[in-house]
Fold:
Amino acid sequence: MRTSILLVTCFLVASAPAAADTVIQEFSGHGRQATPAFRAEGPWLVSWQARQPLTGVRNNQRFELFLHDADSGAYLGQLTQWVGAGNGDVLVERSGRFRLQVTGDMDRWQLRVRQITPEHAQRLLRAREAAEMGDTEVAGIPRRDLGTLRAWRAFDPRTVVLESTAGARFRVTLDRDCRGLMEAENLSLVSGTTRPEFVGIVLEDGTRCDFARVLPDLLPMPAPR
Structure:
């Protein structure tokens, strides 16, 4: 189990009444911090966003998010682990009083705790189960499945994970080493000309790299047990 000293400084906190698909509470800060306690009834989502300085720092800062019981302090699980700037949603099905613990060296981050309906949670769970069971390799992503690109992460010059605003994630192998991918700040998706699919990416300098293989990635992260 991981332990760390938490510095509770530079916090901004906002709250709202709990309701279906509404924000329960929001937090923002930097570096290592623990949030104040909050109450949530399962199912709920933690939406996170991690940012880095615009200049002077490479895209390698860590962001880790953990869930604790607010009353006992018991460790309940890791919600996410990320390197570099990014964002995402994590589904939690527990009810109770909680604290979120952020570790790592990220310059800035934001957290939003959002109540969702059971129907919304079931859609996310079905999507995750389909991704975990899927093993069919394809060379394109149907536009209806990816929708709007929200986040991406390059693991090497030929491998990138794409995440949609709905939480769908795909691990893409490109057809060659994509020059400039590891240094890129932005990318765009390329649509096929004869079918409603995304078939490649274009970097900000105009470099195009096509998909060679696409596999579903885990989404969202499993609820802590």
Remarks:
- Residues 3 and 107 are 20 Å apart (CA to CA).
